[in-house]
Known about the structure:
Elements: H1 2-15, E1 28-29, E2 36-37, E3 60-65, E4 71-75, H2 88-101, E5 109-111, H3 114-117, E6 131-133, H4 134-144, H5 147-158, H6 161-174, H7 197-210, H8 215-218, E7 222-229, E8 232-239, H9 244-247, E9 251-259, E10 263-272, E11 275-284, H10 287-304, E12 306-310, E13 316-322, E14 328-333, E15 337-341, E16 351-355, E17 360-361, E18 369-377, E19 380-389, H11 398-413
Parallel strand pairs: 13-17
Antiparallel strand pairs: 1-16, 2-15, 3-4, 3-11, 5-6, 7-8, 9-10, 10-11, 12-15, 13-14, 14-19, 16-18, 18-19
Helix pairs in contact: 2-5, 2-7, 4-5, 5-6
Amino acid sequence: MRKLFALILPLLLLLFEIGTPLSYSSGICLTPCRAQENPQSTEKNAASAQTDTLSLSAPSAILMEASTGTILYDKDSSMELAPASVTKVMSMLLIFEALSSGNIQLTDEVMVSDHAAGMGGSQVFLEPGEIQTTETLLKCISIASANDAVVAMAEYISGSEEAFVQKMNEKAASLGMNHTHFVNCCGLDDPQHYTSAGDIAIMSRELITRYPQVFDYCGIWQEDITHTTAKGSFPFTLSNTNRLLKQYPYATGLKTGSTSQAKFCLSATAQKDGMTLIAVVMAAENSKLRFADATKLLEYGFSTTSLYEDKTDGETYDIPVKKGTSDAVTARCESNFRYLSSSGENLSAVEKRVELPENIAAPIDKGETVGQISYYLGERNLGSVPLTASEKIAKAAFPHYYQKLLLQLFLAADPS
């Protein structure tokens, strides 16, 4: 027994030897890959200097890359103007939030009120007491820009249009839409109902990145619905108000709007080569000009900008742990990496480096940054994404080492 203790004691002392984790090294150098934009990069790319290069007719416009939020072009985008039915971008955002949370379902039946049926403006002629599903009303809003349908949904979600509009303003504030105030959910003219091209881009980005299923609705060109009222059932054809879907090959949505005060407005989305752009045009003199301006913006963005993406979300790496209750910790990447280039640089030689310590000492908290993935073009760092610990690992105490050592001795003595 004394011989066994004499054997164990030095080993235990060795295990408890005090050490420090090694510093980060260049780690594993993986093969060159397509890089991504740093997610925190949302700076304007000399937008003010580009104001006159496209000769836009509209007094206010903006072009944004959706995944990074980078502004590629800006023309007085903070100007507060009437948005007309582009207001419905925010209404649709709240509808999709309610669907996502489970508060409403696409199959829910919604009864149309007198207030909703009497909205006027662009409408699908819903009648008081008529019942339509949430999905049908969503199609009426996104395809035909129906005021009666959006008010019916507002009342269904919040009890009244006023309560829904309060949620719209609260959401606008939370998104940093500092030039926006909503009075209604459909976009009818009111002196106190305004927003800006920049704010429309913000809420459009929020809608399409969080709920890309919106494209399943706003991309529909035509679809029939059925009115069922006391007068009987009859079909009604929804026709999309966004002519850009037919005029521009990469168009995907999103929302048009026009009134006498707002003139002609548009939040246009398009996708090409894996990159999604948002072009907002406000107060164009006619419909043709708003689509022409949007096309100029989108063509400018696609011709001058490239997006490279490395889908690192979910990648994991193991790091050895010293003096912990586990021998290794899993380092996990929780986000993708994007790099948006507008300088025409060749990114095919971008180098991806997984930078990890050779080991790390316990204790380690879950979510603690334990490494990073960095991207380089030559000597220039394009950005990085962190690697965080997937679990908590406590510092090992004497009983842990004693139990572990006894187990090792038992296994070594087992002839099997």
